[in-house]
Amino acid sequence: MKKIVNKYNGAILLYSVIILGVFILNARFKYLNQIEMKGENSQVIAIEK
What we know:
Layout: H1 2-7, H2 9-41
């Protein structure tokens, strides 16, 4: 087990950072999508003089 970890340490680190980044981006886009959905429900009225 120790040999495997030592041999593939860089790859394990790289893939864990990529997977973590995917989860963070997924959470961010879910949050932005919720904000956008709330914005569609509210009505904006512009009055021009």
